[in-house]
Amino acid sequence: MESKREKFSSGLTVFLATLSSAVGLGNIWMFPYVTGKNGGAAFIIIYLICVVLVGMPVLISEFIIGRGTRKNVYGAISTITNKKKFKSIGVIAILATYSLLFFYTVVVGWVYSYVFKALVGSFKGVTLEQASNIFNTTSAGAISSIIWQFIAVAVGGAILVLGVKGGIEKLTKTLMPVLVILLVVCAFTSLTLPGSMEGVKFLIKPDFSKVHIGVVLSALGLAFFKLSVGTGTMITYGSYYTDDNNLIATASKVAISDTIVSLLAGLAIFPAVFSFGMEPSSGPGLLFNTVPLIFSKMPGGWILSIIFFLLTSMAATMAMISLLEVLIVFFNEELKIERKKAVIINIIIITIIGSLAALSGNPNGVLGNKLIFGKTFFDLFDLLVSKVFLPVNGFLIILLVGYFANKKFVNDQLTNNGTLNNEKIANALIFIMKYIAPVLIVVVFLKSFI
Ligand code: PHE
What we know:
Pfam families: SNF (PF00209). With 450 residues, the chain is an all-alpha fold. It has helices at residues 11-22, 25-37, 41-69, 73-80, 84-119, 128-140, 142-161, 164-192, 197-204, 213-226, 233-238, 247-275, 286-296, 301-333, 339-358, 377-404, 407-415, 423-449. The protein has 18 helices and no strands. The relative contact order is 0.20. The model has no long low-confidence stretch (mean pLDDT 92).
């Protein structure tokens, strides 16, 4: 029943697989629109601080828990502690994973549908108005949005049935660099548009006068979302790590590469946003309204737009797979449900509940005006994830590793049983884990709710 646990095959695969979970819609879709909503440069600075002082320490903590126990998120936590309040980490992780998937798969569906739109040439010579119409018909249509979401989940499930190695490793190896090159091309084109310098200013000239605690909470939530922590994803991936992998180095490389991709996406999108006179704070449609316009201004834009949406959909798919993997391994190891069955059950759950998000991703959608606590379902799942589940779980995880887990266990994981000779870095990290990261999370969290 329980399938034999696999391991990633090499250090490079560990890095690429982890990166493929981190890089996704968070960089290309969410980072630009959340930055736009929160005023630009000042938000980015706060975000970077959150990544270094909170995101990375939590990421490394998840690796420690995962590799140290080689279990699914729930099993891993139970192995490390029997304190009730920490056992909730596993439960929150599963809830967070579902809530995240409910809306993430909607956007993955939008991106898939944009691949086809690019293919048939829908973006050729589009105007601002046409681009926004295309986005509206994509995201507000009742049947189309549900079907695209279903296709997204089903594709993820199908890849997973092939197993950890076959599924994840092959896809990751070659695609990332091509996506980065395309983002650079987009950024260059975007920068040559008239009036684009306003967009650059927006990205590099901080205006701290508009920063309030809500902005900081958004930055913290985005840092967690970006690094895929708080959902148990990195515990699960950590459980496949090789014994000789340097956890701190891997986390640093992943965080740096991931941040570069986000910044490139910002540099591709904001100059165009300002050049076309669009609202930087216009929300989740930002990517879909701008990118077709950028490509329509480029020689060879048609082919490049196809490649861009294809690669974005692949990056999004791999991030989605890393979330599904959390659930499948949990079903397999804790509920003793075989992999294939677990995949099918989860495809059904996500499509049914996720359809609430699919129908409300656009304010003109069927459920676009059905509000709960003043939020659409789509926004509610997003808010629950980014502002509640991830920060709370990040806090519990770092507390567990910093204070309650066996010290030798933590040290052995950080130094690979003393073979790495990195005691100084490890000690500095433990200091941040104990005294800086948890304090920051608590202050931001409490301040924004009280
Ligand atoms: N980090 C992914 C992205 O940026 C999203 C994600 C979050 C994936 C949490 C797994 C877990 O798209």
